[in-house]
Specification:
Blueprint lengths: L4 E6 L3 H16 L9 E2 L2 E2 L3 E8 L9 H4 L21 E3 L7 H7 L5 E4 L6 H14 L2 E4 L9 H10 L3 E2 L9 H14 L3 E11 L2 H8 L2 H9 L3 H5 L3 E3 L3 E2 L6 E11 L5 E11 H21 L22
Parallel strand pairs: 1-4, 1-6, 4-5, 6-7, 7-8, 9-10, 9-11
Antiparallel strand pairs: 2-3, 9-12, 12-13
Bound molecules: nicotinamide-adenine-dinucleotide.
Nicotinamide-adenine-dinucleotide binds next to α1, β4, α7 and α10.
Length: about 325
């Protein structure tokens, strides 16, 4: 059995709640329901040891990670009673580059730094990447802010011999993967796309934030769709909608109009409803193990196997 991966989490929001609770659930039950990769390079889904956590809200700083994940505005549900304390006390995060050295020292011993703070703050994302570099850890950017797409940043991880995975999660069964699979199917079957759109509605803090800071997210969502259809301007993304009563659910509508043989019309409408934080955690667990595996095998830079799990890998537009 491989040694557990030492993980530091940046942000203690809904996605970290779904990740921490899911790992505990799978350890307790041995269930394989909803797991994409039961064992990845010798690492099971339970082979994760959280060793540090960072937040900026005063209510979370100083609390145990297990307590912090249930504090508002997090609204991912409690999956089981009696989750034991983690023994990890949440520390004060950084909001600008000045705190990078302090955070780097507090990251000592981490193999993987999982960046799960709000999207739309690229400078903060890069400051945490800098802290991970100084601490000698792999970095995963789950946000839509460009980090792995920044040539200079990627080069620095390569030079330091460290893995860098990003940018932006392609959720386990999210709008992007379902929409792009349908567009691919259309092309494979010889249909001609006329127009297509997607609408995403959600009730999480992430949605509330993205309504105001969604610039990097819209580009990233376009990156995740079949490049030819998006480039031709036939796919439109409606602005994200924040509906608090949806709580941690995301509801997406995907609409596709196409032409088949004889130019006759074909319409397809899909409604997708998921728990958005679980959708993220289902791929985050694989990215953590890919990052740890690359670090342990001394593979620096961007590991190509992460591409299926990301919306905006290096080389896509920022
Ligand atoms: N399916 C998904 O949920 C999904 C998919 C792709 C990408 N993402 C991205 O993953 C990230 C995390 O999503 P979430 O739903 O957990 O968001 P969230 O808003 O619930 O959690 C983010 C947490 O980070 C904290 N934070 C803010 N600034 C910080 C700082 N400087 N240092 C440390 N912590 C800070 C916030 O207070 C909050 O607790 C977001 O950027 C989101 O866009 C999510």
């Amino acid at each position: 059995m491989s040694e557990a991966v030492k993980v530091a989490v940046i942000g203690t929001g809904n996605n970290i709640s779904a990740l921490v609770q899911g790992i505990a659930l799978y350890r307790a039950t041995g269930s394989l329901v909803g797991i994409r990769t039961p064992v990845l390079d010798g690492l099971g889904v339970g082979d994760i040891e959280f060793m540090a956590a960072f937040a900026i809200s005063p209510e979370k700083i100083g609390r145990d990670l297990t307590e912090a994940i249930f504090l508002p505005p997090n609204n991912f549900p409690r999956l089981a009673a009696g989750l034991p304390l983690s023994g990890v006390t949440v520390r004060r995060g950084l909001t600008d580059a000045t705190g990078a050295e302090r955070v780097a020292q507090e990251l000592a011993g981490a193999e993987v730094v999982l960046y799960a703070a709000p999207s739309g703050r690229p400078e903060t994302a890069r400051s945490y990447a800098e802290a991970a570099l100084r601490a000698g850890a792999a970095f995963i950017n789950t946000t839509s802010d460009p980090v792995a797409r920044e040539r200079l940043c990627l080069d620095r991880f390569v030079t330091a011999g460290l893995p860098l995975l990003g940018d932006d999660l392609a959720s386990q069964f999210g709008t992007s993967v379902v929409h792009s699979a349908l567009l691919r199917l259309l092309a494979e079957r010889g249909l001609t796309l006329t127009s297509s759109y997607q609408v995403n509605l959600g009730g999480t803090e992430d949605f509330r934030n993205l309504v105001e800071h969604g610039n990097t997210k819209l580009q990233s969502k376009l990156n995740a769709l079949a490049a030819d259809a998006a480039a031709a301007g036939r796919v439109q993304l409606a602005p994200l909608g924040y509906l608090p009563h949806l709580k941690s659910h995301k509801v997406a509508h995907i609409s596709i109009e196409a032409q088949a043989w004889d130019g006759t019309p074909v319409s397809l409408d899909v409604k997708l409803k998921v728990h958005d934080p679980s959708d993220a955690a289902g791929v985050t667990i694989d990215l953590i193990r890919m990052a740890a595996s690359a670090l342990r095998q001394r593979r620096a830079g961007y590991p190509a196997e992460a591409t299926a799990l990301l919306k905006s890998p290096p080389g896509t537009p920022a």
